[in-house]
Amino acid sequence: MSKDNQVRAKKHLGQHFLTDESIAEKIADSLSFKGYDHVLEIGPGMGVLTKYLLKKDITTHVIEIDTESVDYLQKNYLNLADRIIEKDFLKYNLKEVFGDEPFAIIGNFPYNISSQILFKTLEMRDQIPEFSGMFQKEVALRICSKEGSKVYGILSVLTQAFYDAEYLFTVPPSVFNPPPKVDSGVLLLKRKENFKLDCNEQLLFRVVKTGFQQRRKTLRNSLNSLDLSESLKSNPIFGKRPEQLSVQQFIELTQLIENDR
Fold it and tell me: In what order do the strands lie in the sheet with 130-136?
């Protein structure tokens, strides 16, 4: 490919284009492509991952905010042209494309918005049975970490409440143009069979976020703003710090708070 025909990586969009074909193929192969007919790639750039998705027995859509990348994809991937969504993933209503149909998400995500991409996925969990993506390595490890770990936090609990999270492999900076300053990590999320929780799910989000905002404090102190009764706060669970609670214990804690109202 000539230099003239390449898309410039833009710093303000957090673009680091993957240049290693074998890694792109490995990411594409990480999804099962079962239980849904559509996959959405976020931030395809010059299509290094897209080309492997197009070989699968699935309908591939891409969403890209960079007009230069969109032009490149339209010229070089003619069979994709009518499924290129030139929008901001974080702001776009995906029901305009998918309605209520299920779809998977995949991509080499810009580091600066990767957590927001995950939160939007959690909001749409009813429609997203599978998710595979490249994050900054430490963020990928945090999402997959278990209670007791120093990096266990909001992303870990809320993701694992609905999905089984698996860290797949590490990707070095050298396979990107331009190379990032840190390693990347690819993870796979598979939605749990029973992903409807036995608690008020909105309250769970609030409890987890409030608890971890002051992660060094016990829950008795960090959840003060939830206006809990003294009798509830005497429960031993409130003597723990948030990082000590498993996902299931957070669900049980949410049930206790719900019953206290």
Answer: 84-85, 59-63, 38-42, 103-108, 130-136, 184-191, 163-171
